Amino acid sequence: MQAADELRDAVEAYLDSLPLTPELGSLEEALRYSLDSGGKRVRPVLCLAVAEANGASVEDALPAAAALELVHTFSLVHDDLPALDDDDERRGRPSAHVAFGEGVALLSGDALLSEAYRLALTYDRTDLARHLVEATIGMIAGQYRDITGDTAELEEIHRLKTGRLFVAAVRMGLDVARVPDSDRAAWMAFGEDVGLLFQVVDDLLDAEASTATLGKTAGKDSRQGKSTYVSLLGAQRTRELAQELRAEALAALDGLGTRAARLSALADFVVLRKF
Amino acid sequence: MQAADELRDAVEAYLDSLPLTPELGSLEEALRYSLDSGGKRVRPVLCLAVAEANGASVEDALPAAAALELVHTFSLVHDDLPALDDDDERRGRPSAHVAFGEGVALLSGDALLSEAYRLALTYDRTDLARHLVEATIGMIAGQYRDITGDTAELEEIHRLKTGRLFVAAVRMGLDVARVPDSDRAAWMAFGEDVGLLFQVVDDLLDAEASTATLGKTAGKDSRQGKSTYVSLLGAQRTRELAQELRAEALAALDGLGTRAARLSALADFVVLRKF
Fold first, then answer.
1. CA-CA distances (angstroms) from residue B13 to A220, B59, B118, B177?
2. Which of A41, A120, A138, B244 has the lowest tally of Cβ within 10 angstroms?
């Protein structure tokens, strides 16, 4: 299996040369701006790694992996809008609506989502696109719960808002490799754990990092009254939770033998992002 | 073939009882509010009529027809937002963002689009969803050109913003009936004509009707500096253009024999909407 950094390079190269629908015209600039973000590409890397571990080629999995990144990017562009999180900065640069205006940012998000489905539909079967749709709807439902603010639902919000796209990354990797349903349970459990782990680490980063190193407005979640793992559990307990989830993710991989063993590096790719 | 009004009733009944993804929770209210609009359902009726004229059952075509209406509704919800057309009224009622707030309206549009793809993917093949994606991207590209305001491109804007979804309605009706590519040209030409006809009639309505009868803010297009057929050609010439397009649409049907003859009623369903 290729290392996570190699898979990330493959994602970057694919996204860089990905043709978008020509009719978008100069709207394409806004899509490229948001896609060309310097993000870690965690979801597509996860998809590629799972597909490769199950015998598919990275090349076959790249459209699915890119589709996941486009859905993720769509969600960031819309969530940053003044009507939602009102965040002027994203990954150290002006948010899309600051750079292009609200109307163009809104349309660029709509176009990113549609381009994602276009990519998922380049496969000659419906399973990949169906799984992407289900995850996207779950993600939107999570954002809705987040802005309507029921703090008792924190884990449910994260399971939807962040977790569903991680689970879809694993599932679509399995789809590309045509892994039968009966062989999927451990992989799906790994996806659930990694998704939750990612969110817990994200909360820690938001609470602890400065705006400069984080590349987005730090401490914003708590100032907006959004509850986070850190605000509910405290930083120390949240750090322990991250370690527990990492162990759980690795345990999920244990039953899958050597072809999955090196996927454990992915758990660290997630948990060790910034510290 | 069933009359257009009967097909419209079938669409209404299907939409009324359509289960949405349960995880949406109370966000479903905002989707239902915008879907339950009293619109004429022109696009889904067109899809059903084309499918039925080519030997498919209305029942088989209803998910595709509903998917088209959901994409159309998504576009209305987002276009009405303050960041785009800033329209407070839609079909005689408060727009979604007035009724639910901007954030919820934005998310409800995202969810409508994703639910549309979910419906298009209930078919066991990718053609319907692919055609819906292509039309949606074209529609978004048209709205982008509309807000960036190059008046020289009026026909191109309408071909994208309105026409693409009409063409998709015809194409998806043909998909449901599994009409081979070689037999599609006249149907597609009919779709192009009806889409343009619809937009021309829409411009006439916007220029001539009062806000009360139109159910949205009348005369808004010209006040926003958007060029329309009426502002470019004058009302009289635009009315003649509508009649010419109607004749062209009917001519496109001529070569298709008796099974298409009754589709001509659809051209009148479009052109005679309000006068």
1. 45, 12, 19, 22
2. B244
Cα–Cα nearest to A90, from A212, A207, A3, A215: A215
CB contacts < 8 A (A, B): 144
Domains of chain B: 4-271 (1.10.600.10)
Q: Could you say which of A24, A26, A143 has the minimum Cβ distance to residue B107?
A: A143
Model pLDDT for residues A128-159, shown as the tens digit of each residue: 999 999 999 999 999 999 888 765 678 888 88
Query: Which of A144, A146, A150, A164 is the best mutation test for B, with the most CBs of B within 10 A?
Result: A144
**Contacts of B263 by beta carbon, 8 Å cutoff, 6+ apart:** B1, B49, B50, B53, B190, B253
* Nearest CA among A162, A274, A153 for reference residue A218: A274
CB contact at 8 A, B56 and B26: no
Q: Can you tell me whether residue B166 is helix, strand or coil?
A: helix
Tokens 């919820």 belong to residue: B104
CA A109, A113, A76, A70 torsion-angle sign: negative
Contact A59, A184 (CB under 8 A): no
List chain B residues with CB under 8 Å of A103.
83-84, 147
> Residue B94 pairs with which residues in a beta bridge?
B89
Give the long-range contacts of residues B244-251, CB within 8 A, separation 24 or more. B245/B193, B245/B196, B245/B197, B245/B200, B246/B197, B246/B271, B248/B193, B249/B190, B249/B193, B249/B194, B249/B197
* Full 3-state SS string of B170-226: HHHHHHHCCCCHHHCHHHHHHHHHHHHHHHHHHHHHHHHCCHHHHCCCCCHHHHCCC
Please report, for residues A10, A48, A63, A69, B208, the alpha-carbon distance to residue A59 in angstroms, rounded to integers and kept in the order given.
9, 9, 8, 16, 56
* Tokens standing for residue B120: 């298009």
The CA distance from A261 to the nearest CA of chain B, in Å, is 34
Name the strand (E) or helix (H) holding B90: strand B89-90
Q: What pTM, to 2 d.p., does this model score?
A: 0.92
Instruction: List, run by run, the mean pLDDT of 10-residue segments along chain A (275 residues).
Output: 84 97 95 91 94 94 98 97 93 94 98 98 97 98 86 79 94 97 92 88 78 58 69 86 85 74 69 53
Residue with tokens 């990092």: A209
Q: Does the distance separating the beta carbons of A24 and B141 come in below 8 Å?
A: yes
Please choose, from the candidates B198, B174, B200, the residue with its C-alpha nearest in 3D space to the C-alpha of residue B259.
Answer: B174
Structure tokens at B105: 């309206």
Q: Which of B140, B143, B160, B224 to substitute to test the interface with A, most A CBs within 10 Å?
A: B140
